[in-house]
UniProtKB/TrEMBL annotation:
Domain Enolase N-terminal as annotated: residue spans: 2-131
GO MF annotations in UniProt: phosphopyruvate hydratase activity
Name of the coding gene: eno
Residues at the active site: 202, 334
Enzyme class label: lyase
Enolase C-terminal TIM barrel domain ranges (all copies): 136-422
Annotated binding of Mg(2+), by residue: 239, 282, 309
Top-level taxon of origin: Bacteria
Catalytic activity: (2R)-2-phosphoglycerate = phosphoenolpyruvate + H2O
Protein name, entry field: Enolase
Keywords per UniProt: Cytoplasm, Glycolysis, Lyase, Magnesium, Metal-binding, Secreted
Length: 425
């Protein structure tokens, strides 16, 4: 049974306060959960409880810690840590709001993850194995950022993530090898053009470009410079994060100084899909633009993965509705967007039932916690997105998957192309 729940303030990868929860079981086992934090958030996702005021920019989390100490801890004491669904239902009921705004999504997610870790530790199992049971698992295809833009780089580009995927790699280890070469080559391309200015929040090169398309050209140049054929060993994946610059069917491209309507935005993106080897696009239209999404997915969804992040906010009901409406063909799964492990798992399963691609994802504000690497494997999500190929809050997660792949040995099955909601031969 759960003996106690403790929370403390720790610091995330942006040097901002966040919540760490520790659950101690009656057998002495301790499980730890750490809350990440987004910067480009969907309007319907779970809300962090922040103190406001001036200290640490108003971002302190003493209120969220008090939620754990005064309410969550007493409510969970004595409960069965193996009943994750029951624990998470109790957290949802105790909060009582649709967005966990009262207790704080940062409090609930830290505790929910801590319970999960304690249960796994108490069985002496790695988290991924605790989740998967005896089932065979799939090692995820990584989606890795090369240039970071949008809200993660002072809006230096409108587009948020310029990433690569290596779906033809034979293993996760090989996919990282491909990415390492492309990341290095991209740095050299930037240096050669006099554009090297350090890295953005998730470790991707800071995008000192004068147009969004220049970033795409540089990415293609990096793939070639690394010795690969664009679209073969390495393909392009984008997170447009269009809710950051679009609303009411209008899209304001700050970098290029122009505004597009829905049709103009579709033309803009379709032009890229025709000219660049793009395999996946996330949030190509704003979260309020289901019509733009549906038209786009109807046009390219047979060969491009269209991911809902801000649009679906890791919500199983929204995933099911999206499957009905054909607005997207893949779902990003962020545990803190839902606020509990069980809700995130339900969103992932709703995606799987719909034949969607399912991508477990980190946030732009991260910690050293590697739990999501285990979730991606344990849930056989098929894909994993944790940012770039630099900064150890990112590398810790990639490296953890390497360990799991090695532990599985000959039983490791790398998702590769099969992770996508369509098959490319
Ligand atoms: P966030 O962005 O963590 O800053 O919200 C990540 C994403 O949009 O995928
Ligand atoms: Zn996103």
């Amino acid at each position: 049974a759960i003996r106690s729940v403790h929370a403390r303030r720790i610091w995330d990868s942006r040097g901002r306060p966040t919540v760490e929860a520790e659950v101690t079981l009656s057998d002495g086992t301790v499980g730890r959960g750490l809350a990440p934090a987004g910067a480009s958030r969907g309007s319907r996702e779970a809300v962090d409880r922040r103190d406001g005021g001036t200290r640490f920019g108003g971002l302190d989390v003493q209120g969220a810690i008090a939620s754990v100490r005064d309410e969550i801890g007493p409510a969970l004491a004595g409960r069965d840590p193996f009943d994750q669904a029951g624990i998470d239902a109790a957290l949802i009921a105790l909060d009582g709001t649709p967005t966990k705004a009262r207790l704080g999504g940062n409090a609930t997610v830290a505790v929910s993850l801590a319970v999960l870790q304690a249960a796994a530790a108490s069985r002496g199992l790695p988290l991924w194995r605790h989740l998967a049971g005896e089932d065979a698992v799939t090692i995820p295809l990584p989606e890795i950022q090369i240039f970071g833009g949008g809200a993660h780089a002072g809006r230096r580009t409108d587009i948020q993530d310029f990433m690569v995927m290596a779906p033809r790699a034979r293993s996760f280890a090989e996919a990282l090898e491909v990415t390492a070469e492309v990341y290095r080559a991209a740095g050299a391309v930037m240096a050669g053009r006099g554009l090297l200015q350090g890295v953005a929040d998730e470790g991707g090169w800071w995008p000192a470009f004068t147009s969004n398309e220049e970033a795409l050209d540089a990415l293609v140049a990096a793939i070639e410079r690394a010795g690969f054929t664009p679209g073969e060993e390495a393909a392009i994946s984008l997170d447009i994060a269009a809710s950051e610059f679009g609303r009411g069917g209008r899209y304001r491209l700050g970098l290029e100084g122009r505004e597009l309507d829905r049709d103009g935005m579709a033309e803009y993106l379709m032009g890229w899909c025709a000219r660049y080897p793009i395999l996946s696009i996330e949030d190509p239209f704003a979260e309020d633009d289901a019509e733009g999404l549906a038209r786009f997915t109807a046009a390219v969804g047979d060969h491009i993965q269209v991911i809902g992040d801000d649009f679906l906010v890791t919500n199983a009901a929204l995933v099911a509705a999206a499957a009905q409406a054909g607005t997207v063909n893949a779902v990003l799964v962020k545990v803190n967007q839902a606020g509990t492990v069980s809700e995130a798992r339900a969103a992932c399963e709703a995606g799987r039932r719909a034949g969607f691609g399912t991508i477990v994802s980190a946030r732009s504000g991260e910690t050293e916690d590697v739990a999501i690497a285990h979730l991606a494997v344990g849930w056989s999500a098929g894909q994993l997105k944790v940012g770039s190929f630099a900064r150890s809050e990112r590398m810790a997660k990639w490296n953890e998957v390497l360990r799991i792949e090695e532990a599985l040995g000959a039983r490791a099955r790398f998702a590769g192309l099969t992770a996508l909601p369509f098959r490319r031969s």
